[in-house]
Amino acid sequence: MIRPLYSLVLIGAQPLLRRKLRRRGVAEPGYLEHVEERFGRYHGPSEPGRLWIHAVSLGETRAAAILVDALRRAQPDLRILLTHGTATGRAEGQRLLREGDAQAWLPWDTPQAVRRFLDHFRPSAGILMETEVWPNLAALCHARGVPLALANARLSPKSLAQARRLARLSRPAYGALHAVWAQTEEDARRLSELGARVEGVFGNLKFDASPDAGQLRLGRDWRGTSPRPVVMFASSREGEEAEFLRAIAAHRDVQWLLVPRHPQRFDEVAALVAQAGFSVSRRSAWTNEAPAPADVWIGDSLGEMALYYATADVALLGGSFARLGGQNLIEAAACGCPVVMGPHTFNFGEAAELALQAGAAMRVADMEAGVRAAVDLVRDDAARQAAAEAGERFAAAHRGAAVRTAKAVLAMVRV
After folding, report:
1. Do residues 182 and 52 both lie within one domain?
2. Cβ–Cβ contacts within 10 Å for residue 91, how many?
């Protein structure tokens, strides 16, 4: 009874979804494109049999890119259908497409929209990246015999508690999945509690990403031209920047680099920095020769995190100083950039603990302590270099999830 009620609520909320898309589209025009796909209305012919991969947002799409690369090495003629939920995810996903592939929005989780999606694309199988499990989607794929798996799967204690409160919806949804491949043993245990069929613990796909060599070279060149050590606030989230700006006011001998997590906030964050009395220079206005001088550099570009990590001597981890669970620290480690993180890293709990044990990261109680720790570290060349080398070793030691996951995906497709 609960899923029909859930479906009725979603159907009734569709006008609100349209209104939300219009609002989001003011800052991000991508939300105004192909709006009817959100409701399962797709146009033009579609060849059946593609492997469908759903990557809701930017982070999941980057993880999907690693998996797609491994899949194509194993099966070069594989055709992919990519679906997304956010404009940044869809824009990033366009880079992965080859001839014969397709891309679309995943529809709102009503039975009618999901049926239209499955009727139109007729995928051979579906892969959901990391966390995105919807009750109607899972149930209808199961009913139609479309194998649906959760890859690079993670589930925080907070998300488990939420799922328990909605157990009559969540347990059937997780139970309908063909397979789950978890990042960690703890993720596997929590997912199993919800009735998921955990078929393996493969590690985190993001360890298999190779930083762009050209970005690394350019970033290190930029770091070498800076008269001051560079400290980066990586993937900052709303509410954290104000604390950061207060904390750095006493440290004008450091070059600060601020990279917001969400591109729709680039202008807002630049304005916050200026209002706090700092001069601002934005990446979008630079040439590739050197950043323009300013108190705070703003990294307002997509796809250049390796460039920013290579420019920085140390990085503060966004999302970890507010109760947001932290952002991915693996890329920083792979780029040889030591990480200072706040107390809230539950989204990447095991990676954070392993980085701490490896000496690639340190944990602090709050933003003020984080800024002090970062400044101390850039002033201690030996300690900073040791942490950078520890990060590179840490990242290299945990690779292999991509090959393991690709093998399992292809085996599932052939079932």
Report:
1. yes
2. 17
